[in-house]
Amino acid sequence: MRKTLIILSLCLAAASAYAQDAASVAMPFSVVPRNVRTLSMGGVATADAAAVRLLGDQSLDVNASWYNWAPNGASSSDINLDAFARLGSSFALSARFGMDSGAEYTIVTDMGSKGSTFAPTNMRADLGAAFKITPNISVGADLRLLSSSLTPKQSYTAFGGDIIAAAAFGPAKLSAGVTSLGTSVKAADGTSFGLPTAVTVAGKYGLVFAEKHSLDAAAQADFFFKGGLRAGLGVEYGFNDLAFARVGYSLGLNSPFPTYLSLGLGAKFFGVCVNAAYLVGSAAVGNTLALGLGYAF
Amino acid sequence: MKRFFIVIPALAAFLFASCSSELEQVTQPAAEEKTELTEDDCFVPGEIIVELSDELVAQVEMDLAKGRFLETKSSAANSVFRSIGAISVERLYSDAGEWEPRHREAGLHRWYRVKYDPNYPRTKAVTSLDEIPGILSAAPERRIKPTAVFNDPDLRKQWHYYNDGTLTANHKKGCDINVLPVWERYTGGKNTVIVSVVDGGVDPNHEDLAGVVLPGGSSGSKNFVTGGYTIVPHSHGTHVGGTIGAINNNGVGCCGIAGGLNGKGGVMLMSCQVFQDNPEDPDHDLTGNFYDAMVWGADHGAVISQNSWGHVYVSEEDALKNGSVGYIKGAIDYFIKYAGIDANGNQTGPMKGGVVIFAAGNDGWSIGWPAAYDKVIAVGAVAPDFTRAYYSNYGDWVDLAAPGGSVHYSNGQVYSTVPGNKYSSFQGTSMACPHVSGVAALLVSHFGGPGFTNEMLKQRLLAGANSKVMPAASKIGPLVDAFGAFATGSTKPPKAVTDYTVSVHSNFVDFAWTVTSDPDDSKAYAYMLLASKDRSKLEGIDMLAAPEGVSQIEVPVGSIKVNAPIEGTLPGLEFVQDYFVTLVACDYSRNYSEIAPIKQVKTGTNTAPAINPKQSGSVVLKAHEVANIDYDIFDPDGHAINVEFTPGSAAAESKQMPDGSYRIVVTAKNADTGKYAAQYKVTDEFGAVTVETIEYEILENHAPVVKSAPENQLFTEFAQKKTFDMDLYFNDPDGEQLKYEITTSPVGIVHLNQVENVLNLTTLDYGVANVVITGVDVRGEKVSVDMRVLVRDPKSDPDVYPTQVKDYLNVSDGMEKELKVTVSSAAGAAISITSAKCDAFNPIKIDMRGYAPGSYAVEVVSEGKVHKTLIVKL
């Protein structure tokens, strides 16, 4: 336990160093996990990709969530939809949609004169598919539309996508791929900024013991093309497949995604699940609260 | 139907009403003698003008400088000063400052005014002063009277009496009734003459008519509207009455043609009121019994009937077809026959019989009644330029033209009295008519007496009129000429000049002689100066058919009295030629005297015009400078000259100064840098040419530069003021005083007021304003400095701007403080953390050029307080 605390302290300390290179990453909101369960488990999104899910036994998983994201920082109110549907034994489709409505800012000129206000918005829409190559190996791909509206007259759009391959080894699933491949965004001065493209590696392990207890663990590491690392680690305890408790840690090193600790609770009954996540340990995203409602079978 | 002839909305028609007339004897007012001036009246008491020698001038100036006004180094002068009771010695021409050198060159400094005891005999004082060594001449100071013959201040507005062509460009010289010579030579009107003004009531209480309007009563004025004797002042009647009889030389208002000479009035006006203001219908006057009104005048002493009214017709055709003198004929005939005559047929007034004078009418028609009745004198209206007034009726039946004025000309109407001690300008044949009545009144005043008849008066009026000046097409008769009416019929020429002097300069011959008398016109009207190379052409010359080869010019005598010196010049002769010269006196009727003794002269040569620069040296200007180069340009012979100016560039222009000299004004900014030459070319009327060239150089302009930039300004509340001297921020290498242009953006933060080089700033609202001060030189070269003005509430949050960042994000918090600034991405990653000191004008600048477009959270920690805001990077 002591060792764990030391590791956590080192990680938090490392994360406190600001990430200048992260500034050059366009559409950073696109890396925010749009699933409450994933968020509460350290943001291990790759471990929960469609290709990984296809290797599981769920046929349908639909979630809706609301985030009060980063109330101490950018402060946005996010609405997310997340769906996975198996079509036959070897194919599945997935879709995601997220809309962030940021807090208003007052338009202040170069001279400091104040004018009207404006609330920026961010939008992400994904459509993906996964295919099982063998009973234990699958691949999946997402196509993504990203948009930011920053002023009454200026908005930015980019297209991207992920490619993930997954393999199952009994209760363990490994996945790897490339995320956020896509077009760049051109700033007002003509400079182009790329999406947060990263090589991602994730692992997931599920364990059921004493009949009513389960323990799922997941870990993920993203290596950004522009440098920087984000790593996530999450554990979920389940009781009788009815109630769940989750904890996670996300480490951002020169990453567009911050370092934080995540806590989560969940409940499931006849396929309907309710999830909550709460983030701590970060000046910017601390106190983030996420609530989700889903249905899966 | 009747109307009066002023061009205003037509007045109400009225019906003739018959009324028996009443014959009463008019008491003749006592005659008033014309005041003759004595010699004492001609000089200023106790003042003598002296001309000093240069030596005495030097002494006097030294004495005056020491404050010794009456104690000179000249014992002779001191003695005389004491004997005549001298009070002061002062320069006649004051020190002229910058013009003083020229004044001295002209000798003006040598003239002094000596004031002495006015009781000391003037002649003796002059003689005493004249004998002082160093006093070159001494003479009593003669009084000066204004050009106008009377002191009435508004006489200058009455072009209709004396039009010298200077009132406006449209006023033609001589388009008047030529009454000034009558006032000077004959009379201003006598109160034994009564003019019946059949019109609106003449204001008897007007300051310029007081005492000249017969009081209402059984033997005076009468109101034929009410039937009573109370005259109700009426603007039309008062205006007409003022033209005839407004008092002259009383120091107020205007003049009347027969308003006397000495401020006490001239002829008398009998107001026979037939128009009266209608309080219930201001556009239609009440009217009275015109028949009785006309007859009343004849029966009560008037010999002139003044009528500025007429019948109304629907059209010219109606007037031509149906018009006639009407029933008023009886009244007109009665006035003509019985005015000035008692019940027994004896002449009781200054004239036997009367004259009836009518305005022709304002319809612009070829007919007008009753003016067209052949027994009346019909008067048409002339504008100030000898043209028929646009409204005047016309035709062969119009006997005389007189000034009626026109609104189509600036100052072109007739100026006279209106009720309430006021004055106004009207136009119309109504205004022309009293001019003839006034002249008639003058004639009766002068010629009137036993045996003088209305026919004699009429003959003078018509025969003396000026038929040369009116275009035949005007069809309103000859222009009434007061002097001509007096002079007509004169048969005796003035006395010939027997002694005169001549001198020659260039091709001019100058004559000097004295005014001669005229047996029947008091004095000569004019002199004809004559010159010919052939003596025989002058001997026995017929002035009415002067032969070719005789040069002549007329010199009017004007107001110069008999035996007083007069001068004249005969110009335009050939150069260097022998001429025989003489002069002839004449009266206004062109009766010529014998010629004066013939003299022989030889004309001189023509001298080219002179162009004398008033200063020397080259003219070199910086781009912002202006140079004046003055010249005296004249013809030594006095010939007319034509001055041509070639500027050399747009920078130079020539103007003639009030004193007649010329000035080249070089305004350097109007031309490019370079050397130029301007030129005067002056040509006299005989072709002699003088050319003067002046070179001027315009130096290269140097743009202004910034000397020091103004400091940024921090204010913490509204209505704070601060003043800036903008000259401190700029320097112009050419030494030019720059002009400043001020802009501020955005508006509404500060109010800026510029007074020359001073900028006054007042805060209006919170915010930041950028004030740009631009110094501009004369060529438009400019340089600017910026000054940021921050009006900031000291309690406000830190300033984070702009919130739509393109490159740098600025963070400050008013006064100097240390801030910690953290910028986080939308995903929550802290991207930059900066801690530094800053102030309002030196904010922490965070370079966001490497930041991807998106929204960012900014956290500012200032003095332990955390402030958060959202920005976007574009």
Structure description:
The complex is a heterodimer of chains A (297) and B (874). With 297 residues, chain A is mainly beta. Chain A has a single domain (2-296), classed as Porin (Beta Barrel), CATH 2.40.160.60. Chain A has helices spanning 2-16, 36-40, 50-54; strands spanning 60-69, 76-86, 91-102, 105-108, 114-118, 121-134, 137-149, 155-169, 172-182, 185-186, 192-193, 198-209, 213-224, 229-239, 243-253, 260-269, 272-280, 289-296. In chain B, strands 6, 7, 8, 9, 10, 12, 13 and 14 form an 8-stranded mixed β-sheet that branches. Chain B has a 5-stranded mixed β-sheet with strand order 44-50-49-46-47, with no helix packed on it. Chain B has a 4-stranded antiparallel β-sheet with strand order 3-4-2-5. The model of chain B is unreliable at 6-36 and 144-148 (pLDDT under 50). The chains are: A mainly beta (297), B alpha+beta (874). Chains A and B meet through strand 4 of A and strand 41, strand 43, strand 46, strand 47 and strand 49 of B.
* CATH-level-4 superfamily name of chain A: Outer membrane protein transport protein (OMPP1/FadL/TodX)
Give the oligomeric state of the chains in this entry, treating copies of one chain as homo and distinct chains as hetero. heterodimer
Output the CATH topology of chain A.
Porin
What structural class do you assign from the helix and strand content of chain B?
Answer: alpha+beta
Highest-level CATH class of chain A: Mainly Beta
What order do the strands of the largest sheet of chain A run in, or round the barrel if closed? Answer: 1-2-3-6-7-8-9-12-13-14-15-16-17-18
The low-pLDDT segments of chain B are: 6-36, 144-148
Shape of chain A: globular
Number of strands of chain B: 50
Q: How many structural domains does the protein architecture of chain A include?
A: 1
C-alpha termini separation of chain A: 36 Å
Number of strand segments of chain A: 18
